[in-house]
UniProtKB/TrEMBL annotation:
Chain positions recorded as ATP binding sites: 34-41
CDD domains documented for this protein: APSK
SUPFAM superfamilies, A to Z: P-loop containing nucleoside triphosphate hydrolases
Function: Catalyzes the synthesis of activated sulfate.
Pathway(s): Sulfur metabolism; hydrogen sulfide biosynthesis; sulfite from sulfate: step 2/3
Identification of the protein by name: Adenylyl-sulfate kinase
Record flagged with keyword Transferase: yes
EC number from the UniProt entry: 2.7.1.25
Organism: Lactiplantibacillus plajomi
InterPro entries, per the entry: APS, APS_kinase_dom, P-loop_NTPase
Gene that encodes the chain: cysC
């Protein structure tokens, strides 16, 4: 629902297609979703670097970082996570309109919230990347020692422990970081982008 009256969408003299043409590639969102510690940020950042090395500009929106700024008034209740993802979806949509290949790394545990973002974007503009690393592996990594805290009851509502993670039904890409090294995951994403025509050249679909 929009609260403001008397507002009008301002159209631009440069279209999204023209911005994409200038950039030399399609714009879209690679939406990484998965448990804390599954590898979302690591893969997204490595993909950004690999794309940069190929002369393709992209930008990573990262969970923790967004919570320091735009979303600093949000916590981890179900309602706050939904609002977190809604805002990120709107930001990602603006990035796509700007002609940018955008990578997002948020747990985004609720299927309905992810589907809302998909619905915000045009066909092909939302690429869901399910980082399907088993909970046991994420917990063993425990990069930030948050699983240990959650197990001790020092954090409540922690995803995978006492808060839900709803797995995607039809992700465009699925990656299990416990089964393959980082370079293979990065390549999996790059090959998807190449084969589906996002980077220019031949399209498989
Ligand atoms: N309760 C609880 N549950 C899950 N995660 C928690 C929690 N509290 C803090 N953290 C840290 O916050 C990071 C997840 O933030 P996100 O914005 O991606 O979460 S969400 O999409 O809104 O669910 C997550 O970072 P990542 O490990 O990068 O996923 C955690 O470090
Ligand atoms: N094959 C792999 N692919 C990606 N990350 C891996 C792999 N093996 C170990 N890791 C480690 O797992 C951790 C994943 O953390 P991170 O990328 O921050 O996850 P998330 O963003 O999903 O919370 C990193 O410390 C990374 O070095």
């Amino acid at each position: 629902m929009i609260k403001s009256d008397h507002i009008t969408w301002q159209t631009s003299q440069v279209s999204k297609q023209e911005r994409q043409q200038l950039a030399g590639h399609q714009s879209a969102v690679l939406w990484f979703t998965g448990l804390s510690g599954s590898g979302k940020s690591t893969i997204a950042n490595a993909v950004e670097k690999a794309l940069y090395d190929q002369g393709v500009g992209s930008y990573v929106l990262d969970g923790d970082n967004m919570r320091f700024g735009l979303n600093k008034n949000l916590g981890f209740s179900a309602a706050d996570r939904t609002e977190n993802i809604r805002r990120i979806g709107e930001v990602a949509k603006l990035f796509v309109d700007a002609g940018t290949l955008t990578l997002t790394a948020f747990i985004s545990p609720y299927r309905a919230d992810r589907d809302q973002v998909r619905a915000l974007l045009a066909d092909r503009e939302f690429i869901e990347v399910f980082v399907d690393t088993p909970l046991a592996v994420c917990e063993q990594r425990d990069v930030k020692q948050l699983y240990a805290k959650a197990r001790r009851g020092e954090i409540t509502g922690f995803t995978g422990i006492d808060a839900p993670y709803e797995v995607p039904n039809n992700p465009e890409i699925t990656i299990d970081t416990s089964a393959q090294p980082l370079e293979v995951s990065v390549n999996q994403v790059l090959v998807y982008l190449q084969n589906h025509g996002y980077l220019g050249g031949r399209r498989d679909d």
